[in-house]
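Hey, does this match?
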Amino acid sequence: KQYETVHTKLANGEIREISDLITYNLDILQFAQDIIENCEGPEVLHAFYHAIERVTILDPTCGSGAFLFAALNILEPLYEACLDRMESFVADQDCLREKDGHEKFAEFRSILKQVAKRPNRRYFVLKSIILNNLFGVDIMEEAIEICKLRLFLKLVAQVERMEQVEPLPD
């Protein structure tokens, strides 16, 4: 019933901003995942992936990093859903052996090659989020170091051998 109400309001153009979705108590994370998982064309996926890559989250009092960890937990399934859908598009194109659509999926292939160079996919996702999306500052330098260490430890926990760990930039 709630889905039908929100769908009708979306179709009628009554919902124009993200705050409208919050007003109607829509699970925005699930809504975004559903869009990614069910998109039929690569254009939507391409736009969505680049949008989440550009999201910047700043915690002005990062302390030990609890807020940034919460943000990491929200972004991770979105990245994962995008990568799943990219793999699906590429696999479908490979099965059909379509030559004309090859350029549409070239960027997806490039991203998936970057994933393959990492120890595993989760490592790639977490490192991408830590480097591109999360930012924290604090009046206490020690707090920033603790936050960075916690994020780095989360990343390191994804590898089986220490040789696989790549250094993080400051």
User: Anything to note?
Assistant: The mean pLDDT is 87. The helical segments are 2-11, 18-23, 28-38, 42-54, 66-96, 106-116, 121-132, 141-156. The first strand starts at residue 57 and ends at 59. The CA atoms of residues 64 and 147 lie 5 Å apart.
